[in-house]
Structures are given as C-alpha cells and as structure tokens.
Amino acid sequence: MRRLNTTTTKALAVVPAEIAYELVHEVGWESRHQFVDVRSATAFARGRPKAAINVPFSTSDLFEDAAKALERDPPRLVVAGTAASQAAVVLERLGFEAVVMDGGFDRWRDLGLPIDLDGYDDDDDDELQDDGDPAKW
C-alpha cells in the first residue's frame, strides 16, 4: 500500500485493485467496506465493480452534499474513478475512512474481477435484459 500526499494532514491510502477487491468482498458480498465509484452516471452504467454505488464527483461541494447521504455503516470506503483522491479527501473530512483504488475501473476489469452492468442480471442465467437503447448509454 502506498500513500498519496494531499493537502490534508493525513495521507490517503492507495491500494491496487486486487486489494480493493479483497477489502470490499472479504465476507461474501458483505463487508466492512463499501465501494464508491465517483465516475459519471453514464460510465457507471456501462460497468462497475460488483456491488459498487455511484456518487459522481463533479465538484467538491456537490460531491460533499451527495456523500452526506451515504450510510455510516460500513464506515470504510474504497473509492475509484478519475477524481478518487479528491473524493477521498472529502469523505475523510466527513468522517469516513477512505482508501483509493489505484488503476480505476479499467484495472479492475483487466484483472477479470466481478462487475455489474446495467441491463445485465448476473443471477439470471447470464441473459441480457432490455435496458433501453445502448447508444444512449
């Protein structure tokens, strides 16, 4: 694990995707860690780490307002996306423990780790469901 220097007094922990996977999925699909994907809703719909929630980061203030609605249980969050470090700083300021995943979703997918897709139900015989026109995703 490496540390990312930020403007806060505490350095952020940065972990590779393999470790992020272990943190989020340490007890079946339930864990003391929640995966927060800070990419846009469009990118999130096209694919995300299994069981991730989406809290898009566009500005620090808007993200802080949205992040305040996150449940405090689990208090530990794994954050990924292009603005993951900025989002993690905001989450730490709100009292969460945040870990940044290095490599983002591309690295997660390249490792073959489990993903969710809109319009795809992993538990339903691997059949695609009609979720609208993919051109509009």
From TrEMBL:
<dbReference type="InterPro" id="IPR001763">
    <property type="entry name" value="Rhodanese-like_dom"/>
</dbReference>
<dbReference type="Pfam" id="PF00581">
    <property type="entry name" value="Rhodanese"/>
</dbReference>
<feature type="region of interest" description="Disordered">
    <location>
        <begin position="118"/>
        <end position="137"/>
    </location>
</feature>
<dbReference type="InterPro" id="IPR052367">
    <property type="entry name" value="Thiosulfate_ST/Rhodanese-like"/>
</dbReference>
<dbReference type="InterPro" id="IPR036873">
    <property type="entry name" value="Rhodanese-like_dom_sf"/>
</dbReference>
<protein>
    <recommendedName>
        <fullName>Rhodanese domain-containing protein</fullName>
    </recommendedName>
</protein>
<feature type="domain" description="Rhodanese">
    <location>
        <begin position="32"/>
        <end position="117"/>
    </location>
</feature>
